[in-house]
Amino acid sequence: MPDEASRDGPGLDAHLREYPLGGETLLSGGFLEVHRDTVRLPDGSTAMREYIRHPGAVAVIPLLGEGPDPDVVLVRQHRYPIDRVLLEWPAGKREADEPTRACAERELLEETGYTATEWAWGGWIHNAAAYSSEGIALWFARGLQPGPARPDAGEFVETVTMPLLALSALDDRGELTDVKTLIGLHWLKAALTGNRPWVWTRADRAPDVA
User: Is the CA virtual torsion 120, 199, 135, 3 positive or negative?
Assistant: First the structure.
């Protein structure tokens, strides 16, 4: 059931909150669990909630160069549930108790071969909150050093480099559909224009986010 520690505090938004009364695990797969809980609604009645418990993930927004139109690094990969090849930021699920920046470094290296000398924290997004506990941590990376990619067994990705303006044009035409990539793109554009703060820190000194 949802972690009580994630709530804002007792009494806050009580007119909206739902509280778990108990539940069961319907399916436990390789890394996903499907749950069905009974919850108490704000008016005191009860309802059923089915949801997926997910360990969380990290996405990296890698920059090659500086200025208003830097090149960015993305990957193309087939997403089986929708049977489409999507253009996305490098990303992947977190291992148990893995800090988010450690995961970001690992996924960037595995999928693209790049390592970064500087990192800036972006923020959290919840991409499917209606039915999944998944949260995705977004990190910005720059000072990229190339190297060989190290994909996991059974993972097939294609590294793509393009100017930010070209990626924005894909968005304008409605050709980007991946949620983390759309949000990361808009956060990046806001940061480059000074409308979203970011703090760059050397890789060996960058703080982590649990």
Answer: positive
Q: Alpha helix locations (H) across the chain?
A: 100-112, 164-172, 179-192
Rg (Cα) of the chain, in Å, rounded?
19
Cα–Cα separations (whole angstroms), residue 192 to 14, 47, 115, 173: 39, 45, 21, 22
Q: Parallel, antiparallel, or unpaired: how do β-strands 158-163 and 136-145 relate?
A: unpaired
Does 49 have pLDDT greater than 50?
A: yes
Provide the whole-model pTM. Answer: 0.89
Residues in the chain: 210
Higher pLDDT, 131 or 6: 131
**What's the whole-number average pLDDT of the chain?**
91
Short-list 82, 90, 96, CA closest to 108: 90
Residue type (1 letter), 99: P
Q: How confident is the model at residue 30 (pLDDT cuts 50, 70, 90)?
A: confident
Rounded alpha-carbon distances, angstroms, from residue 18 to 4, 42, 43, 116? 11, 6, 10, 42
CA separation for the pair 128, 199 (Å, rounded):
28
3 state DSSP class of 5: helix
Vertex 149 angle, CA 205 and 32, to 5°? 80
DSSP class per residue in 13-53: TTTT--EEEEEEEEEE-SS-EEEEEEEE-TTS-EEEEEEEE
